[in-house]
């Protein structure tokens, strides 16, 4: 089964392990991810923070590209990219005035308007479908036994309501997934708290304090590691634990699934992390 | 008498029913940066209602919005506070008289410049430009090296083929205000 794939800028730069592990996991489950040719940056925080035309037009070009490629489902692992494209798709389908105007402008450039036919999906949505969950259980040859983890969804997968595929205050898709893979997923109250990612360069002190609070909460929950589904969240958590005495490793949920599947590349993914996860994984004999 | 033209302008620009805000403060209660802001989310909405354009556009508080949309998710009147912050930031960028947080504005400028020139974010150039613009050369030097060692900052950019389309999008953004 082939699915159209939009990696986004981070997965080609500071989050290549998310790209590699996502593709590996989907491949193992019988789904090939085919990259959308010539995709452009979704605009991330900078687009919508500075210009309401860019906020819609940059994501919209990708949606038009997907339609031009006859892609029905478009998979986006990055929470920011997912949020922006899903929001743009929603606004077109809902017929909001601004989105329709931007669509006409984008059509002048792309020779086509976005028709609202693309299903914008995050890997968590696809991997938690009942038939896929059953396959995950089958494919988990090395269950993540003993790994005490908290799931961190961040903001952009959970809000606003029309974008969220899970409960905005108490999501559980990642929890279900990692439990299927054998991990001990713990309860905590910070699943959808913001990591501060978009201000990490310009307001570093603020972000360090946010990260310190998050990591302390993870420790209080009894977690040995944090699982995330967003490259900004992971990079921010991985690189800004300056004020945390006992640093905690952070994983992409797809990396954990991949380790459970016995993926041969998993050690390579671990080398990309700033806080080395290998001591934890070795102590649990997971890698 | 309060001039409501700014409120009308903001409601049209954001598509948000800012007039409905009755100061329940659920937005500020959930805001992750409320402890470091001079003006809280609910206060910003009130200032929009009161037509206090200059005070808002010159504030640093609007730039501290991370865009987490917690306010949007919890507002009983369905006001998306993050979209209000975005509109205020973009108006402030247009004005450029006194930007309340020049570092954040510089970050967005550098980010979008690389997107305009290659179609995608070019991290190395974005960080380099940001350091030059803000003079923050010595921040994160060690981190930068750790990222570089692990291949997390590609040296060369990737230029998309149909770059003309992205450049046109940026040109339209500059010329047209939808």
Structural description of this entry:
The complex is a heterodimer of chains A (287) and B (178). Helix content of chain A is 47%, strand content 10%. The radius of gyration of chain A is 19 Å and the shape is globular. Chain A starts with a strand and ends with a helix. Chain A has 287 residues and is an alpha/beta fold. Chain B is mainly alpha-helical. Helix content of chain B is 56%, strand content 0%. Chain B is built from ten helices and no strands. Chain B has helices spanning 5-14, 26-30, 41-49, 53-57, 70-74, 81-95, 102-118, 123-134, 141-149, 163-175. In chain B, helix 7 (102-118) packs antiparallel against helix 8 (123-134) and helix 7 (102-118) packs across helix 10 (163-175). The longest helix of chain B is centred in the middle third of the chain and has 17 residues, at 102-118. Classes of the chains: A alpha/beta (287), B mainly alpha (178). The interface between A and B is large, with 61 and 63 residues.
